[in-house]
Automatic annotation (TrEMBL):
Annotated signal peptide: 1-26
Family assignment from sequence similarity: Belongs to the 'GDSL' lipolytic enzyme family.
GO molecular function, one term: hydrolase activity
Organism of provenance: Eucalyptus globulus (Tasmanian blue gum)
The keyword Kinase is assigned to this record: no
Protein name (database record): GDSL esterase/lipase
Keywords noted in UniProt: Hydrolase, Lipid degradation, Lipid metabolism, Signal
Amino acid sequence: MEKQRDLLFLCLVLSCSSSFLPWVSSSEGGLEKVSPQRLFVFGDSYADTGNTEKLSGGWHPPYGSTFPGEPSGRFSDGLVLTDYVASFLGIESPQPYTWRNDVNKTLLQHGMNFAFGGTGVFDTMAREPNMTTQIDYFQSSVEQNVYTKHDLSSSVALVSLAGNDYAAFTMKNGNQEELPSFITSVIDQLVYNLKRIKGLGVGKIAVTALEPLGCLPQITTVSSFKNCSSNWNSITRLHNHQLRRSLQELKKNESMMGPSSPSSSSALVILDLHSAFVSALNMLRHQSGNLSENPLKPCCVGVTEGYSCGNVGDKGVKNYVLCNHPETSFFWDNIHPSQNGWHAVYSFLHSSLHRLL
Ligand SMILES: *[C@@H]1O[C@H](CO)[C@@H](O)[C@H](O)[C@H]1NC(C)=O
Ligand SMILES: *[C@@H]1O[C@H](CO)[C@@H](O)[C@H](O)[C@H]1NC(C)=O
Ligand SMILES: *[C@@H]1O[C@H](CO)[C@@H](O)[C@H](O)[C@H]1NC(C)=O
Ligand SMILES: *[C@@H]1O[C@H](CO)[C@@H](O)[C@H](O)[C@H]1NC(C)=O
Ligand SMILES: *[C@@H]1O[C@H](CO)[C@@H](O)[C@H](O)[C@H]1NC(C)=O
């Protein structure tokens, strides 16, 4: 259904003709579905759909109140990035890796989600598996022939890195001064991880560029959610700049290795969460028709600094407050977009996502 909507979208923009149907090729005389069949997901809470242990935030009310109606391990009131990318590809959202032994095996044909909330490419404050370990899990599945070579080549990997490495680094070091040099290590490790995923045979990879860290409620709370932090936003810019440069270099290196991989130049797609967040925030600011409504303000916040969304004290007292209209919010909690936020972000990722088809 999602696909039909995308087609409509495409038709409106390009005035329709069958040559604009990128997921259908007419080779061998007939219509052949070439769209990706599986999604493998790596990274953090922007992509996790249930891997983190049951004590973590996403497993407490009011998380999941919009979808599926109860906490599901998603760090949102509803759908997250992974769900929107899967729907764009026309497949079901892949099952969390930690559920693999408990679910109907036929569900694994849609791929698997190895993302764990709170993680980074390096170890963070969370004790969940870092991205290296997540890729190790994926590699084991491949070695156990859960997926064939052909399965993998017609698959997409989604890699989310939203900044936990930088949060952990700042906590450990007490300041941001050393952060710029740390960015290089993060990008090098990320690119190494992408090469590993590619080396295991995955056809196409979408990797997120950092969202504007300085605009996350966690950071803007000191200004009552009015001002983004330019320091944190310049960290974002540096990270994204280096990511783009490294991926360009990677493509150049691969093209030097000969024409054997004609698709390699299109196999890596950046999902630019920075511009998508900024565009979505601007859109919501104007859409509400109520300029006093501040889209930087999260829907669900702790009553005081020590508490966060979902925290419940003795005798079941809620230590958080909830907005009246999560469906018009952009941020759900201090870090994560709401379902409405992700939906808006997703609308600005369409042109990048089309390159995965
Ligand atoms: C798994 O799902 C498939 C397809 O929905 C169904 O045909 C099959 O009976 C299920 N297997 C089990 C063990 O439930
Ligand atoms: C990831 O975690 C594993 C297991 O704890 C650890 O051995 C490895 O050094 C970590 N990798 C990175 C890049 O931090
Ligand atoms: C925060 O933003 C307001 C209005 O946008 C501006 O007047 C104020 O100077 C800013 N404060 C800081 C500390 O940047
Ligand atoms: C590209 O190749 C050069 C030379 O072999 C190497 O030093 C560099 O790390 C490679 N870059 C990437 C992004 O793989
Ligand atoms: C606009 O938003 C503000 C703050 O959320 C609210 O107090 C006010 O009632 C809203 N006005 C209208 C016309 O919706």
